[in-house]
Specification:
alpha/beta; thrh gene product, domain 2; 46% helix; globular
């Protein structure tokens, strides 16, 4: 039994925080997990900026609702799900991710939750569990699945390293430089070919 675990942002969707930065013209919000591998440090930094500028959850959700999936993402994901089981494992939040998940056809998704106060301000976040992406892969392996892990950034490395096969999709060059042992893909057809090859090898 095989399963493919995908990151969401950068693989199927635009980077949410970058688009919030574009909309609000707050340049500090452009920093993502591609730039800062320490997720808690990054989120505390973001929360401080949101508080400083009075940016509410609703304002962020309005930006998200204006965004679409990356071109070709839905057709690609459908083609993978026709071939094998596939899920989304993201460090985004339920309050952010659901419009995108609906556009993907409502696959199983693992994500986190935000803490929001009476003003509608985001005051904190709750991880599903420590090292969540690695733990998802470990859980499926405990159920005797073999896993292909696909992502684009530092926060995907637990998933990619734990999986039987890891693949990068459109990663920044510094991530490629830090982890040269993993294959790099830039287009969905190229990624689809590597997934197919990986599934055959895992099933051999």
């Amino acid at each position: 039994m095989n399963i493919v675990c995908f990151d969401m942002e950068g693989v199927f969707t635009p980077e949410i925080w970058v688009n919030v930065a574009n909309k609000t013209e707050i340049e500090e919000l452009r920093i993502t997990t591609r730039d800062e591998p320490d997720y808690d440090k990054l989120m505390q930094y973001r929360l401080g900026i949101l508080e400083k500028h009075g940016i509410t959850l609703k304002q962020i959700q309005d930006v998200i609702r204006s965004l679409d999936l990356l071109p070709g993402a839905k057709a690609f994901f459908d083609s993978v799900r026709d071939r094998t089981q596939a899920i989304v494992v993201t460090d985004s939040f339920v309050e952010f991710a659901m419009p995108f998940i609906e556009k993907l056809g409502k696959p199983l998704v693992f994500c986190h939750n935000l803490e929001v106060d009476s003003r509608g301000m985001i005051t904190g976040y709750r991880l599903r569990q420590p090292d969540p992406k690695r733990r998802v892969v470990e859980a499926f392996q405990g159920l005797r699945y073999k896993v292909i892990g696909i992502g684009d950034s530092y926060n995907d490395m637990g998933m990619i390293q734990q999986a039987e096969k890891g693949i990068f999709f459109r990663p920044p060059e510094k991530v490629v430089k830090d982890y040269p042992e993993y294959p790099v893909t830039r287009e969905y057809e190229e990624l689809k070919s590597l997934i197919e090859k990986g599934l055959k090898e895992l099933s051999a």
